[in-house]
Every structure is written in C-alpha cells, then in structure tokens.
Design brief:
569 residues, alpha+beta, Dipeptide-binding Protein, domain 3, 19 strands, globular
C-alpha cells in the first residue's frame, strides 16, 4: 500500500503514505454512520473525487490496490481482501483462485488453481500463463513501482530483469496446465496468500502487452474496463466489462454502470462538493481526502451531514524514531527519559483532537490481525511523566538537563509536521529537555531520515503495512537484514539482533495466521522495551460521502472506502 517506487527493503514503509494519499478510513458497522438508506441497486454513475491521480494504471506498476481500490475494479488477482466492514475485512479470500493457496510443509512452495469461466474484457479465457507473465512484467525496470516482495521471495527473483530482457522467464513460477500455477520460494513465507492480493498478480495476456503504454488501456479481468484514461490517470472513466461474471467473483458488487474518477482536486473543494451533494456530486465519494478538525466541528451539529461520515482506523502508527548511533541517544536512559516525558494528549490535539487520533503505546496498531498486545513499557500517562524522565536523565549524567534536535517535515497539518514537532518540544521542556527543531521540506526530509549516513538522532516518522499482519509492520523496521546502505533505509535504529531476526524467520514459517499474530505481538513488546522508538498515536479517519451513496463498506485492511461495494441507486 505505498505510492513510491521503492527497493524491496523500503517496501513496507510507504503504506502509511498511501493510507493518507490512497485513502485510509476504516469503518466497521459499530462505528460507521456513513451511507444512506434504501436497498442498493444496479445502475447510475459513481463519481470519485480525489486529490491524487490514478497514475501508472498498469498492474505491474501499481502498489497493491492503492488509489482507493479503484484498480481492483479492473484487475483481479489470485486472492483478494474480504470485502466486509471492520475486522472481518482483514481476512484474505480467493479471487481468481479456488482457494487462498496450498502450501508445502515448510511454506516454500505455494500452488493455486484457477476458477472455471474466467474471462477478459474481450471474451478470451484467463490462464495461469497470463498470471505468470503479469508477474514477470513487474520485474522489468521500465515498469517499476509495484510491490517488490517477489524479488526477495522467489527463487531467482533477485537477478531476474523481466520478460523484455530475460526471454526465458522465471523458472520459479511453473504453469503445468492452463489452470494451475506454482510458486517456488527461497524461504518460508506463511503469508504468501496476502502477497497474492497485490496487483502484480493480475493476469496480462502477452499478445496484448504494449509495455509502458499498457496503462492507457490495460486488459480488464474485473467488473469494469477502461474507457478513457486522460493525463496519466487524472481523469479515469470506467464502464462495465460485459464478460465479467459475478458467478466467479463473490467479492465485487459492481453496482454502478459507470465510474468517473476525477483527480487533482483540492481537499477543501472535495469536502465542500461532497457536503453540498448537488448534481452528480450526490453520487460521489472520495478515497483519499479526510475531514479536518474545523470541518468536523461544523458537521457535528448537522445530523444530515453527520450521517454521511465514515469513521475508522487503518493499521498505522505515528512515532518518534531514535538513531542510537547518535549521541546522546546511544544511552538507553536518555531514550527512556524521552519516552516517559512525551505528552500524547498534546500530540493528539496537534493532529486535530481525539476524533482524528488516539494515543498509542505500542508500535503495532491496535487491531487483532496485527497481533496487537497491549503494553506500555514507559508509562507516561496522558500528559507525560516529567519526574520519571528527570530521574533517568540524572542517571544518564544529565542532571541539569540536555539539549537535543528533532527533525521534522515542514508541511503543515502533516503527521510529521511542525504542529506535532512543537507539541513534542513543549512536552520535553517540562522534563528539562530543550528541543531544537530542524524543519526540512518533504523531499529533503525523506532523503535525510532514510539515509544510513545522514539519519539524525531523533525524528518524526510513521508506518503502515501492506497487509494486516505484524510481519510487514515489524520486519522492515527491526530486521537487521533489511538495513539498506545503498538506498532508502527504514530500520532507523539499525537494530540487528540475532534473536529478533530468528524470531521473524520462525513466524514467517507459520501458515496459521492466528498463531503468527500472537507471536508478532510478543515480539513487538520485546522490541518496545528497548526504547528504540516512541509510539505517539494511531490515526482515526473521517470521510464524507454524497447523499445518494449506498452500501458503504470500509475494512480494517486498507481503511479505504471500497468502491467495489458502493451503489448510487
């Protein structure tokens, strides 16, 4: 769930970016009020109003189902998300395949069988060879941008350069017949069914591949096909794929006849249009624009508008990151002091209040699918424990306090921005810690905090995962083998603990996801006790829908209003 082209080790980082830029607003039936009454019916046009365009609309270049699930209307994959509200939506279910996969004993070989009756938009049959070819395309340098896991997981993946250069293809993907596909991995991966939801697993007929131009008219395997793609996804028009059959797809409802995706819009304009809901905007949604605190304040007093707001939580954490190689953060007592001193209430307020953020004491999101295990290694209460922080500073040799620097993004309203940085600065001041703020523009900020040679001692960060599990949440941040010296690094603490690495490998072998979740939670607690980061908040998302929108479904997997479920009649 990322929107940047990244190396394999950067992979899980930008989920948080897509959570915001691609639409994070998980809402379950217990906390979501968004949707109007009436039985959903087929017909009409759904309008999607977004800030971010549907760029690079090619399954090889898209990162999972980013862009608010719009790609999943065109591209089906071996498996997919369970399209239900809340926690039920955190499960992986079959899509093109008959089941979620058949693993070998050690989970290094995964076999899938295709359903009967699968067709492309031109009526031709979808085959296992098409899925193999679609995956192989994602290795081509000219089609970079998609999820990079297969480079690490597939045997031969690290050196393969795609079908345009390596004509022989990947031997680690076998297609013994037109309906069977087998993957050979170089390590145990019990979560392969989750990976098989990503758009690189969408079938691509080799005869229709036009390389970098494929994004203009990709061949649809889903309920909609591309009628028009203007200005690299700024305006995307989708109409029905008449060869799609609901008999082979129980997940996508495909109610509207047409979907009009309009992008490049200002957030204020989007929320105003949804609020007013005049003309076509009455049947509109957004998949990437949250309501702000001021807008929520106005909406709260209007029952009609309030009933059209979806609420929920994407699996994401905002946190303070330490670099233990930089003094004084090489001293664990200093890191503990900062952890105790933090005032999460002021951070919550800086992000718009309790309607938009909840205090966090765990690195893993507070959802069962991630393995959430409640703990608070350094209890700071709601407003910080300045006395405990001062005591630790004294033990660390800083009885008279100390001065540190906090690096942050200068983008206002951003979770790594000046408002949150100032809140942290004020909280630490009460504990005798003077914080100097080092604000950088977004590009410069990213280049600095993700560089192994330039990374500062303390900075604001965030993390979200590509699928709802502790694996893609903890491994990229704390697996020592994922430290990147020649690209963007996300293991900010440079943790390379043999025991941690071993436990990550052991959990990855498990195909029992409930058992795996418990161990991810235990590992989160073990790492958390080392004070390598300070969890600040888990974000809450609020999204408006048009007054004629029905059947709003937003799961805990992506946190995105699922456009495959929406009806407008």
């Amino acid at each position: 769930m990322r929107h940047l082209s990244v190396s394999p080790r950067r992979a899980a980082a930008v989920a948080a970016v897509l959570a915001l830029a691609g639409g994070a607003a998980a809402c379950g039936p217990k906390d979501s009020s968004a949707s109007s009454g009436g039985k959903p019916e087929k017909g009409g046009t759904l309008t999607v109003l977004n800030q971010e365009p549907q760029q690079d609309f090619d399954p090889a270049r898209l990162y999972t189902s980013g862009g608010g699930n719009v790609p999943s209307l065109v591209f089906r994959t071996l498996t997919t998300r369970n399209r239900e509200n809340g926690a039920a939506g955190s499960k992986v279910v079959p899509d093109l395949a008959t089941n979620t996969g058949e693993p070998s004993k050690n989970a290094t070989v995964w076999t899938y069988h295709l359903k009967d009756g699968l067709k492309y938009e031109d009526g031709t049959t979808i085959t296992s060879a098409d899925i193999k070819y679609g995956i192989e395309r994602s290795f081509a340098a000219e089609l970079s941008g998609g999820a990079p896991y297969l480079r690490d997981w597939l045997i031969g993946g690290k050196t393969y350069q795609g079908p345009y250069k390596d004509k022989g293809g990947l031997d680690s993907i076998e297609t013994p017949d037109a309906k069977t596909i087998v993957f050979h991995l170089d390590k145990s991966e019990g979560e392969f069914p989750f990976l098989a939801t990503q758009t690189s697993f969408a079938p691509v007929p080799k005869a229709k591949d036009t390389g970098t131009n494929y994004e203009n008219h990709p061949v649809s395997s889903g309920p909609y096909k591309v009628l028009k793609n203007e200005n690299d996804g700024e305006r995307l028009t989708l109409v029905r794929n008449t060869y799609w059959s609901a008999k082979t797809d129980s997940e996508r409802k495909a109610y509207p006849d047409k979907i009009d995706v309009q992008s490049g819009l200002d957030a204020t304009v989007i929320n105003q249009r949804l609020s007013t809901s005049s003309g076509n905007d009455a049947a509109a949604v957004t998949t990437d624009t949250n309501l702000g605190a001021a807008e929520l304040a106005k909406i709260t007093g209007d029952k009609s508008l309030a009933s059209r707001v979806g609420t929920g939580h994407f699996g994401e954490t905002y946190y303070l990151a330490f670099n233990p190689k930089v003094k004084p953060f090489d001293n664990i007592k200093v890191r503990e002091a900062v952890s105790y001193a933090i005032n999460r209430t002021t951070v919550v307020n800086a992000l718009g209040g309790s309607s938009l953020a909840e205090p966090a004491t765990t690195f893993l999101p507070d959802q069962a699918s991630y393995g959430y295990t409640a703990y608070d290694a350094f209890p700071a209460g709601k407003t910080g424990n300045a006395a405990k922080a001062k005591q630790l500073l004294k033990e660390a040799g800083y009885a008279n306090g100390l001065t540190i620097t906090l690096t942050h993004d200068t983008t206002k309203g951003e979770e790594r921005g000046p408002e949150v940085a100032t809140a942290v600065q004020e909280a630490l001041k009460a504990a005798g810690i003077t914080v100097k703020l080092d604000g950088l523009e977004s590009d410069a900020y990213g280049e600095k905090v993700h560089s192994t040679t330039k990374e500062p001692g303390l900075f604001l960060s965030r993390w979200g995962a590509d699928w709802p599990s502790g694996g893609p949440f903890l491994a990229p941040i704390y697996d020592g083998r994922q430290i990147v010296t020649d690209g963007w690094n996300f293991n900010h603490a440079f943790l390379d603990d043999a025991a941690v690495n071993k436990e990550i490998d052991a959990i990855n072998k498990l195909t029992d996801l409930n058992a795996a979740a418990k161990r991810w939670g235990a590992l989160d607690k073990k790492i958390g006790e080392q004070a390598l980061s300070v969890p600040l908040v888990h974000p809450v998302y609020k999204r408006l829908v048009g007054k004629d929108v029905k059947n709003v479904v937003i799961s805990d997997w992506t946190g995105v209003l699922d456009v495959s479920q929406v009806a407008v009649k």
